[in-house]
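Curious: can you check?
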Amino acid sequence: MRFWANIAAYQLVWFCAVLGAARGQAWPGIAAALLFSIIHLYTSPSRRSDARLIGCALLAGLLIDGGLGASGWAHYAADQSDAFAPLWILAIWLAFALTLNHSSAWLQGRPLLGVALGVFGGPLAYLAAERLHAIAFIAPAWRGLLWLALAWAVAMPLLAAAAARWRHTAGRTPLSGAST
């Protein structure tokens, strides 16, 4: 049950952040991510690892989304400046970090699967956000999408490896999808 709750909570944060940003408001995503993180960290058996992953994911978000905006390849809705990653998208990164030891734990120890998921899943999520008017790719859009594919191809296996390492050093092994 925790597996499905983790997926559902992440998706709820994603939709709150994207739909809020599309309406010019960052606070729905931030509020949803903070609520998810408080509840999650209170109940998580891997609290320390999850907290470390939040820091890593936020750094990845600052680099990836900050780079995308600063390059001029995309414009974020509900953002004051494209030179930095907007808070609403960092809220998504925070929530994403909380899946790495739980509903996404199946990626641990599978770096090629992480690369594949990053190459395709990363850009697809941004394209969905574009359809909902939370982000706009500046023509030609392929530049921004290529940046996202490459950046996520690196970030996804690195984050999964960090999750596995920190769970291992805490004396825990990656949880199977059904038991988290």
